[in-house]
Write a structure and sequence with these properties.
Number of helices: 3
CATH class of the largest domain: Mainly Beta
Number of domains: 2
CATH superfamily of the largest domain: Umud Fragment, subunit A
Shape: elongated
Number of strands: 12
Distance between the termini: 74 Å
Structural class: alpha+beta
Mean pLDDT: 86
Largest sheet: 8 strands, antiparallel
Low-confidence stretches: none
Helix content: 10-25%
Strand content: 25-35%
């Protein structure tokens, strides 16, 4: 009876160890590497849709045109997902529905076909100066916009996003099943 009890005890300890190791691994990945995220709202249509389920990478290099996740700068407690348009030191102008970053025209293919279906400008004209009073984006800040420009609350309304507040990069859609795949991004300009 003693040997049987000892064998059971060893197996029980092994099972507890495996469960704790799996829990530790799960928490480490979730807190430091990747986390599931669900899109709420239509501000990123047609790139992301309401209820898309994504993997958000927490360890990433900040690049222009990344789709980033951050808390609402206005403090509502909600989490936003938007496209990173401007980096520190950039100037931004939208004129006649065309985006200029540092006086360079930027193509935005992720806005099609929604942009071509509009009778008016998809993105209203603005300059960074008109919105923020700054000629260039300050250090430690970024400028974001949703891909659904007419229906997105973004840096045009709430201003900059602090780089330190960015939670991660929306990188991979895992649900719905017909949309599984990597979230595309443009090549960054030099």
């Amino acid at each position: 009876m003693g040997k049987f009890f000892k064998t059971i005890l060893i197996e029980f300890v092994n099972i507890i160890f495996v469960i704790l190791a799996a829990l530790f691994l799960f928490l480490a990945v979730r807190n430091y590497l990747a986390q599931p995220f669900q899109v709420e709202g239509k501000s990123m249509n047609p790139t992301l849709y309401q209820a898309d389920h994504l993997i958000m990478w927490k360890q990433f290099d900040l690049d222009r045109f990344d789709i980033i996740v951050f808390p609402d700068p206005m403090g509502s407690g909600r989490t936003y997902v938007k496209r990173l348009i401007g980096l520190p030191g950039d100037s931004i102008v939208v004129r006649e529905d065309q985006l200029f970053i540092n006086d360079q025209l930027i193509e935005e293919p992720y806005l099609e076909p929604a942009k071509s279906n509009m009778e008016t400008n998809y993105t209203e004209d603005f300059t960074l100066w008109e919105i923020t009073g700054d000629p260039l984006i300050p250090e430690g800040k970024v400028f974001v916009m949703g891909d659904n420009r007419p229906g997105s609350g973004d840096s045009r309304q709430f201003g900059y996003v602090d780089i330190d507040e960015i939670e991660g990069e929306a990188n991979f859609i895992y649900y719905p099943l017909d949309r599984i795949g990597k979230v595309g991004k443009l090549q960054a300009i030099e």
